[in-house]
């Protein structure tokens, strides 16, 4: 359920995330307390349109740009864009993550998962390794998890276990991801997939692997399971999947954690690209979107590594230091210091 503390925390995280990615954005969050899965399409539309009527003077193409998150999708963004435009005239740049037909960007759908893949490549390269031949475990098989799985599989990575709310499966020889995608797109659950065996979901995060990618909810790595984590690298594709106690345990164990404010920034980076395209009235092809995303993810990683070197700290501290420093510098330059 959406609550003010969580929304405040996510807004603050977004501020540091956009700073780490070097985007000309601040950070904001908002939401509606409801259960979208229990509402009909027309109820969701009415709810979204009324919400937009209430906040239309708070959002704007140069003020605050909503984008989809949990429980929302391209259709939700289309309703916000349409309702906002009734008040302010045609304004495609007021939201991102829109359907392609309404000014959405190519590559936006895969952006977070693709960003996670680029981040994983950058981190592994730092240790002389690559995705090809690495064993990977993915928790969550929604938008981010499924794209990360497909892209890692395409790069020769071995996805040996995957889990979501319907159950978890494993195959130590590597799961056939294209076959699993076909199975899921036909309405099948993970646990009914024939190319892997069902496993206990509680064992997923502590499964033997090189790379663990939590793509689902926050707080899944905690003091109970952190001591048993066997992965060498953790890529935080979800927001805040590692709680502070687990973070400390994992650091002591020598597990390398790539923090969420960098690892899952692919979504907001391509949202920025969509906004830029809408403002210019000039759309890019998918190859350009992916090339620019790769550039931004790599550049951010190099800046985080530079921070880690100069402050002798881990990646999370390096990323936060980078983000907070950039915001502080901008604040000083504008003359806002206390």
From TrEMBL:
Name this polypeptide is given: glutamate dehydrogenase [NAD(P)(+)]
UniProt KW keywords: NAD, Oxidoreductase
EC number: 1.4.1.3
Gene3D superfamilies: Leucine Dehydrogenase, chain A, domain 1, NAD(P)-binding Rossmann-like Domain
The keyword Flavoprotein is assigned to this record: no
Molecular function terms from GO: glutamate dehydrogenase [NAD(P)+] activity
Name of the gene this protein is made from: LOC100828452
The reaction(s) this protein catalyses: L-glutamate + NAD(+) + H2O = 2-oxoglutarate + NH4(+) + NADH + H(+); L-glutamate + NADP(+) + H2O = 2-oxoglutarate + NH4(+) + NADPH + H(+)
Start and end residues of each Glutamate/phenylalanine/leucine/valine/L-tryptophan dehydrogenase C-terminal domain: 105-335
